[in-house]
Each structure stands twice: as structure tokens, then as C-alpha cells.
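Sanity check record (used in CI):
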Amino acid sequence: MGKLLAYYKRPNEAGTDEAGRGCLAGPVTAAAVILPPNFENGLINDSKQLSEKKRDELRPLLEKTAICFGISHVFENEIDKINILNASILGMHRSLDQLTKIPELILVDGNRFKPYQKIPHKCIIKGDSKFLSIAAASILAKTYRDAYMKQIHQEFPMYNWAKNKGYPTKEHRAAIRKYGLTKYHRKSFKQLPEQLNLEF
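Expected output for Ribonuclease HII:
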């Protein structure tokens, strides 16, 4: 994987990304972050390329160092109403709303976005492995979402969300077969390959 680039075109840029888009349960969580112009950290990378321990270590460093950042959960009911793509973009917009500095440019991980205010944006496929601001946003989104999934795991430990974080693992799907759906499951998602409808 290539070296992360600090900036795209302008120093005052916001990177934004989401976590949990492919999950069966829990929110999709988005983050937006503006890093200082001289920021460097060789450990920061796409959150999927980092261990959970390393992400958790980087989170407070990013929170302390960033010029500003925002985090937004878009929960299951809203995902079911507007679909996961729109929910992901909405989460990014809500995260951008929280920034205390207006960015000159928004860098978006992926290939889909909707204009935010009148700020120019650039969609970058695999942007979290190319640009520091997007990578930082991916780490914040992932760690905040994981923390939330560990919290609701206490309420429904049989699904083991503390480990699988709501993703469609064999363990998670086996628990759905046995226990059905919870209020945290996305009802618009195909929860099990062999079933169209599940009781909940």
C-alpha cells in the first residue's frame, strides 16, 4: 500500500468516511475531520488495515490533534427508510455540520456523494488508503461505531456484537436464526440468505 498523502489540493480540507455500511445491525457511523497543515503520522492508514488496538490508540491522538472533527450515527430506523447509501451520505453531511471550521474542500471515500452546501468535493475510490484526512475519518468512524456496538452488546450478548460488530458473520447469522431480530437489526436488509421474512 502506497504512502498516504497529506493533502489533495488545499490545506484546509475535510476528509469524510463511514463505517458499518455492510452490517446487519447497528448504525452506519460517519466522521469528518480537518487535520492541521503540518500533521504527519506514519501509523495512520485505512482503518481496515489497522488492528482494533491500533485504531483505539490513534483515536485520542486524532481527537487531540485535529483542528476539528465530527461524528454522526445514522440508526437502523432511518437506514430502513432512506436506504444505506443515502444514510451513509446523510451521516457524512451531519458530521460535516459539526465542524467548527468551514473546509475549502471535502474529500470523500468512495464514488458517491451529494453536494454539501456550496463546498467543492472530490470522491476518491479507496481514498482512505491515499489521503490522511480520509484515513483519519475512517479511524474515527470505525472506533466510535465499535464502541457503540460494544455498548449494545451488553443488552443482547447472544449476538456477540462486541466481536462481530454487527457484520454478517456466520456466528451473527446463526444467532439470528436462533433468536430472531432485535430492535437494532436493519429490517430492510436481507438478514439470512434462505429467508425473505423473519419474525421480530
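The two ends are 43 Å apart (CA to CA). If this sentence no longer matches the regenerated C-alpha cells, the check is flagged for review.
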